[in-house]
Structure formats: C-alpha cells, structure tokens
Write a structure and sequence with these properties.
- The protein is of the alpha+beta class and 166 residues long.
- It is built from 2 helices and 9 strands, in the order E-E-E-E-E-H-E-H-E-E-E.
- The protein has one domain: 60s Ribosomal Protein L30, Chain: A.
- Strands 2-5-4-6-7 form a 5-stranded mixed sheet, covered by helices on one side. A 4-stranded mixed sheet has the order 1-3-8-9, with no helix packed on it.
- The two termini are 14 Å apart.
C-alpha cells in the first residue's frame, strides 16, 4: 500500500474513488459517513458538521442531507445499486468544554445521519457514535476495510505510519 493515494477528507467534503485509495479524517461532533459497493469494490467518504441548514444558509455538504445525498448519487451514477451499498457512520461526540460548543450538536448529527441513511435505504453495517472523545477514521475504498480509533487528543503525528509525509 505504499503507492496508494491517501486523501484527508475535511469537514464539508465528500470524496469518491473507483481506484484503491485510503480516505482518512478526524472527528469530534461531526459525522463521517462511508459507503462501499460490495460488488463493484469501490466507495467513498463524506464528513458533515451540521444536521440541517438554517433557512438563510447555502445548501452545501457541511449539512447532513446534501452531503449524504451527493455520495449516494455519485455511487449510483457510477453503477452502484442501492442494495449493494454498505454504509458506516462514525462521530457525533459531545464535548461541552470545546470552543464554540453547541448543545447536543453531536446527538443531532447522529439522528440526522441515521434518518437519512434509512430514507435512502442504505444499510448501516458499522457505526460508532456519541460519547465524548474524538475519532480517527481510515477507509480503504477498494477493500471496504475501515479502521477507527478513539482519541482524547489528536495530533498530526498520530497518523504515522498510515500517512507519512515522505
């Protein structure tokens, strides 16, 4: 896996790849959602930070419904059938001591993610939600392998050897 592309998925972004790729991210109250086509052997990851948009906000992937819908649409446009897509949802931590803490943001993100996956008929095969610690997620788009760690504190150096700066 030394030559495999590695992409850090930031909040408000969705990434899909038919190529063998490692997608990774770091979460707090936001939700990282993964979709894997078990027949086509490809997938993607998204990361939203708000359950729903306020009436004057742009309809973008910082919000649950557009983010999840976009990845579903991309998967379908690339030949996936809904019945072959497996989903995973991670995140939704509550940390009341965090800067700019928003009451029950993590809980509301979790509810939104689960509701949208159910609405889109995406089967959730893995989830790790809630609590008060951050998470690091790594997803291999070709194999569907997912790796999660829970962290009290997350540093750039924690990613070695998954992602090296070389």
């Amino acid at each position: 896996m030394e030559n495999i592309e590695k992409i850090f998925v930031q909040p408000g972004f969705v990434h899909f790849s038919k190529e063998s790729t490692l997608l990774y991210t770091v979460l707090g109250s936001g939700i990282s959602f993964l979709m894997y086509d078990k027949i086509q052997k490809y997938g993607g990851m998204g990361y939203f930070i708000r359950p729903f948009r306020e009436s004057n906000a742009d309809n973008n992937t910082y919000f649950a419904y557009p983010a999840i819908s976009i990845l579903v649409d991309i998967m379908k446009k690339n030949g996936s059938q809904i019945s072959n897509i497996e989903g995973a949802i991670f995140g939704g931590a509550e940390n009341s001591s965090a800067i700019n803490y928003s009451y029950q943001l993590g809980k509301n993100n979790i509810i939104a993610a689960i509701d949208i996956f159910e609405h889109k008929n995406i089967k959730i095969v893995k989830k790790d939600l809630g609590g008060d610690t951050g998470r690091k997620i790594v997803f291999h788009t070709e194999s569907g392998d997912m790796f999660l760690t829970k962290e009290e504190r997350i540093r750039d150096s924690d990613w070695y050897p998954i992602v090296s700066k070389k």
